[in-house]
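Hmm, what's this shape?
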Amino acid sequence: MTLRELLAAAAAVVMLNACCGNSNDSFETLNSQAVKEYAFPVRPGYEGKSAYWNAFSPKFIYAPAFDIKEVEGAVKYRFTVTSEGEGGESCSFEAEKPCAPLSPVWNDIPAGNVKLVVESVAEDGTAAPIFERKFLRDFPFCGPYPVADKSYSEAAVKALLYVHEMPQVQRWLESGEPDMSYVLYSYPAKMLSAVICNETALAGMMPEYRESCEKIALAVADFLISLSKKEGEPLAFFPPTYYGDLIASGNAENAGKMMTLDAESAAEAFLDLYLLTEDEQFLERAKGIVRTYSGLMGEDGSLPIKLYWETGESVGSGKAMPDDLISLCRRLHEEFGIDEFDEMAARCASWISAVPLKSFDLTGQFEDTSVDVVTHQNLTHWSAVPYALYLLAKENITEDEYQDAMDLIRFSEDQFVYWDALPNSNGNKGIWAPCAYEQYMNSAVEFPDSKEQFNYLSPIDCSAANIMLAMARAYQVSGDELMYAKAKALADNLVLSQKDSGKIPTVQSDYTDDFWINCQNYTVSALLEMEKIVAAHK
């Protein structure tokens, strides 16, 4: 049975329980469906659709298959998975190929750290180890999960108000420059744009705040424009990625450079500000940013991942994932009737389909992280989910496009969602599960053949929101109740993590108080959309 057939059969069964809501009986059915689906590997390299992508993966929810080469003289291969916890129980099976998935024993392996040993077996029965790998056999979805204690829209308004009332945001009412005690203002394209988006959203939801919100948004926009390149320059209308010498903005490797797609955040913010003020300059500035992107784009629809700030020339050979640019072009078309950029969006989509979707090198592209890494070394759902959302939004999605979207969503769950967590030595689980991590990078994880030290394997609020949104959209297209239940579990936990102040912590854990306004903005918008989906589901 194919995955699509399995999903259809399971959805039909679950629909019988849907009228009862999230009862224990319906969760028993959903959990059973999840167990069956987890036996299917995600985009396995042996299918030929894409490369083997999991060489650096620290954990798996779906049964993995690894890039193991055949051995001359072997007649079969023996796979043994041993738990590293107390008891050290083992599961074994044999297969004709060394790249076979662990499906036969996957659901017999308890959640925890495990070691895989693959042996080649000769005709005389002698065996020799040819592959070893340690990883986390992660917890599966297993509902029910705690339910939100307030509506998603109430949580959203409280979150917007929290940012509005931050001293470093209120300061804009009396100063035309950022209060750098909020050190993340050193990423102006991203963080100043985030303040504008926060204020325009709050003004729309709470009219009594409109006057102060508009003043703050206009002050931030003026400063952001003052930092931006002028018309006629290579990077016309682009704001800088880096400002000052705080955190990554002070790193020598970032001096005189910018992340190509950061200007997209500013264009979105200017569109929001145009809708609030009806001032045409902001619409024109957003369009100017997109026209600059058009000039930077290669014939194949690709864009550089990083640029020199003065010349607009590419820094290295790395390519950007232009999903957000596609979304921006579609917004200009759908909200503003501007079709000037439709062809550019189509070229971006074609490049994604032809290149990263084939290599599955869905690498991280963050301004505070090195983008100069080995293939598949630092994957992220942020390079996967937006394209899945693009595909799922198509009016006449094809079977292949649907399967690509589901592969990207399953990959994102497999690698970045934590439905539960193992306790550490003091009994604390350390994360607020269910949650989602941002990317692989972590100094606590030993990556094979890697000399880098990484710090960013963390559960991030907007990461949960991003995958939640993809799962919710998949439910809308397919009617798959398991996708809906997974999305709702992530959404509810985001609301439960909200502080009394209204802040939705960026890192879903007790170990840091880091707060990124842009992350909360994304979470807010996703929660507001999720509320509509939940209302329709009832």
The chain is about 45% helix and 10% strand.
